[in-house]
């Protein structure tokens, strides 16, 4: 208490106005709360923690509350964990997941092109994605852990890689071949006997008998096999006037007719050779086949998509075939470019025997719901949109967390300037700072990038949009450093609880030029991309570019600190506000002129009226 100006009464002395009169230090996360003394000896002020994110250790020291130690104090999405921060906490995705909006989605390391890309061998490895992880293996023909792969010599195995005949090793693969008299099966492993007698390439003059891997020639009765084991010589020729339709030999003094090969048989007249209908008896064709008689011989035709084997009679193998694709499944995201998949099966037809598997992928994926996410009221009221030309959304997404850090730094630097246009705008106060020490206004947990961003600009090619707004805890370290109480301007953040949060006004956020220069410098440093970046800033947040832009030009030969930032700030809402203000002013001016004219007329009437009365009553 202190003696009042009347030297009679005592009035409260607010020790909190000067740092020298209290011990509540901001570096100890404390703020001074003045108390009106009811009686002598009562405390005149109290040191309290700057927010409910801190707890008091002593009367002059507060420490951060670790929300992560109490599950009731934090809420994190699936596949994430709580990480304590100064004055709050953040939810970090567990390994194998990445933050998309407010959720943690599985990272497909097998398709990623950034730091999340798999470590499998670039050419010999096979990457298989799984929920929250991935695994590596080697391609067929190689062995190893998928990160290191070496050739497998299949021919050294006991089964020679499954080759029934000969095995030939090559780097990363091998093949099989067959000995003479055999042909490689469709499975490229087994060897099938060639039925030379059926194919007609045996060269036998008369009869042919197939054997495993070969064949033998023979002769009809009355003929002798020659030394070449193919031709036949008649032992005793018939008279040229014999009636046999094919072959004739003198046997035991009589003419004996016979047929020249197995495809014919002698008729009941013992003279005429007629075709043998092999299909009319037990069919020589095997499996899913039909037999068609020919003269001479027969042919086997496969049905139900089976394939004719090298033996020309078997239809026991069938290649697999793809079914039609299923319908597309649900999109993974409601907006900002999710993905959806459809599948097919190797069942039309199914693989049978040594048939081949279907060739190609059993699924395909496409982008869906590519439109930008609709913005909530908070973003519409307080957010701004930056359009970065020259970089893709994928590239910007790689440094999204670092962009948030850059935004925090730019906003804290701006708000620390001790004048009402900076400090006052951020903390909603008409006072000034008591100190010049840099203090924290906001942190990474309070920079809100809208769901689905960064996202490709829907109009400008090779351009990326970022939509965000910045808030801060109330109270906070910086705003407690004020010489005045907060004004009613706090109520502007209608959607925020004024007892809990501040929010940087949209116009203020748009005017912070260091935001654009910080992001451009970050892109130049982190992505090592030599580009000229045009940054578009607008208070009209929608899916189309705003009419006015913030242009940032970077030099490819200078470091990021020399980035030249040219800012033109004029958003649609600002323009609308200006036009409304002009209309109101015009109406006000006209109304004022009309009011003045009416007042003048009334004065004249009042002044003249007594004069006329006096004149009338004048004798």
Describe the model.
The radius of gyration is 47 Å and the shape is rod-shaped. Helix 4 (400-415) packs antiparallel against helix 7 (513-526). Strand 13 (142-144) and strand 14 form a beta hairpin. Strands 35, 36, 37, 38, 39, 40, 41 and 42 form an eight-stranded antiparallel β-sheet that branches. Strands 1-2 form a two-stranded antiparallel ribbon. It has a two-stranded antiparallel sheet with strand order 3-4. The chain is built from eight helices and 42 strands. Mean pLDDT is 79; it is low at 484-496, 537-584 and 609-619. It is an alpha+beta fold.
Key terms for this structure?
619 residues, single chain, 29% strand, disordered C terminus, alpha+beta, eight-stranded antiparallel beta sheet, two-stranded antiparallel ribbon
Which sheet architecture does the biggest sheet show?
A: 8 strands, antiparallel
How large is the radius of gyration?
Answer: 47 Å
Question: Strand fraction band?
Answer: 25-35%
> What structural class is derived from the secondary structure elements?
alpha+beta
Helix and strand arrangement:
Elements: E1 2-3, E2 10-11, E3 30-34, E4 45-49, E5 54-58, E6 61-64, E7 80-85, E8 88-93, E9 97-100, E10 103-106, E11 125-130, E12 133-138, E13 142-144, E14 149-151, E15 166-170, E16 173-177, E17 182-184, E18 191-193, H1 196-199, E19 207-211, E20 214-218, E21 223-225, E22 232-234, E23 247-251, E24 254-258, E25 264-266, E26 273-275, E27 286-287, E28 289-293, E29 298-302, E30 306-307, E31 314-315, E32 317-318, E33 338-343, E34 363-368, H2 377-382, E35 384-389, H3 393-398, H4 400-415, H5 420-427, E36 447-449, E37 455-456, E38 463-473, E39 501-503, H6 506-511, H7 513-526, E40 534-538, E41 550-553, E42 564-567, H8 572-617
Parallel strand pairs: 27-31
Antiparallel strand pairs: 1-2, 3-4, 5-6, 7-8, 9-10, 11-12, 13-14, 15-16, 17-18, 19-20, 21-22, 23-24, 25-26, 28-29, 30-32, 33-34, 35-38, 35-40, 36-38, 37-38, 38-39, 40-41, 41-42
């Amino acid at each position: 208490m202190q003696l009042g100006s009347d030297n009679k009464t005592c009035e409260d002395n607010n020790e909190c106005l000067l740092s020298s009169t209290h011990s509540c230090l901001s570096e100890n996360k404390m703020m001074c709360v003045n108390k009106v003394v009811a009686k002598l000896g009562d405390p005149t002020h109290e040191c309290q923690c700057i927010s409910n994110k801190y707890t008091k250790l002593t009367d002059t020291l507060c420490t951060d509350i670790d929300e992560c130690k109490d599950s009731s104090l934090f809420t994190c999405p699936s596949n994430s964990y709580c990480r304590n921060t100064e004055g709050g906490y953040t939810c970090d995705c567990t390994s194998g997941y990445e933050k998309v909006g407010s959720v943690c989605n599985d990272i497909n390391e097998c398709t990623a092109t950034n730091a999340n890309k798999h470590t499998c061998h670039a050419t010999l490895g096979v990457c298989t994605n799984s929920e929250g992880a991935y695994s590596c293996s080697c391609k067929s023909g190689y062995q190893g852990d998928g990160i290191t792969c070496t050739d497998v010599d299949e021919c050294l195995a006991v089964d020679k890689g499954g080759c029934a005949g000969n095995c030939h090793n090559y780097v990363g693969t091998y093949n099989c071949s067959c000995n003479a008299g055999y042909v490689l099966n469709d499975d490229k492993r087994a060897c099938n006997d060639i039925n030379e007698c059926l194919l007609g390439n045996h060269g036998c003059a008369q009869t042919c008998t197939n054997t495993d891997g070969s064949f033998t020639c023979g002769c009809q009765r009355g003929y002798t096999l020659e030394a070449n084991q193919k031709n036949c010589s008649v032992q005793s020729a018939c008279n040229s006037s014999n009636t046999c339709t094919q072959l004739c030999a003198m046997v035991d003094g009589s003419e004996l007719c016979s047929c020249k090969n197995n495809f014919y048989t002698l008729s009941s007249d013992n003279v005429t050779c007629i075709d043998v209908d092999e299909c009319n008896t037990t069919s020589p064709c095997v499996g899913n086949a039909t037999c068609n008689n020919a003269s001479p011989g027969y042919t086997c035709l496969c049905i139900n998509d089976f394939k004719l084997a090298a033996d020309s009679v078997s239809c026991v193998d069938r290649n697999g075939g793809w079914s039609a694709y299923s319908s597309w499944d649900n999109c993974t995201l409601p907006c900002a470019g999710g993905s959806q998949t459809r599948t097919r099966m190797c069942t039309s037809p199914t693989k049978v025997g040594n048939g081949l598997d279907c060739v190609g992928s059993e699924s395909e994926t496409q982008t869906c719901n590519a439109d930008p996410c609709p913005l909530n009221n908070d973003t519409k009221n307080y957010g701004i949109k930056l359009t970065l030309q020259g970089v893709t959304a994928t590239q910007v997404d790689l440094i999204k967390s670092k962009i948030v850090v850059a935004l925090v730094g730019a906003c804290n630097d701006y708000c620390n300037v001790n004048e009402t246009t900076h400090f006052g705008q951020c903390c909603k106060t008409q006072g000034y700072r008591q100190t010049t020490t840099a203090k924290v206004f906001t942190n990474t947990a309070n920079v809100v990038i809208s769901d689905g961003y960064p996202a490709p600009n829907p109009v400008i090619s090779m351009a990326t949009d970022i939509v965000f707004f910045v808030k801060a805890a109330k109270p906070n370290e910086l705003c407690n450093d004020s010489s005045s109480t907060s004004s009613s301007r706090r109520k502007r953040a209608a959607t925020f609880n004024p007892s809990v949060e501040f929010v940087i006004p949209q116009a203020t956020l748009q005017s912070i030029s260091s935001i654009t220069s910080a992001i451009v410098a970050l892109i130049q440093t982190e992505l090592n991309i030599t580009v000229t970046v045009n940054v578009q800033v607008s208070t009209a947040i929608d899916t189309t570019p705003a009419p006015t832009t913030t242009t940032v030009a970077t030099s490819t030969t200078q470091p990021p600190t020399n980035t030249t930032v040219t800012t033109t700030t004029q958003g649609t809402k600002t323009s609308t506000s200006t036009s409304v203000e002009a209309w109101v002013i015009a109406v006000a001016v006209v109304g004022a002129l009309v009011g003045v004219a009416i007042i003048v007329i009334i004065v004249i009437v009042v002044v003249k009226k007594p004069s006329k009365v006096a004149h009338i009553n004048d004798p």
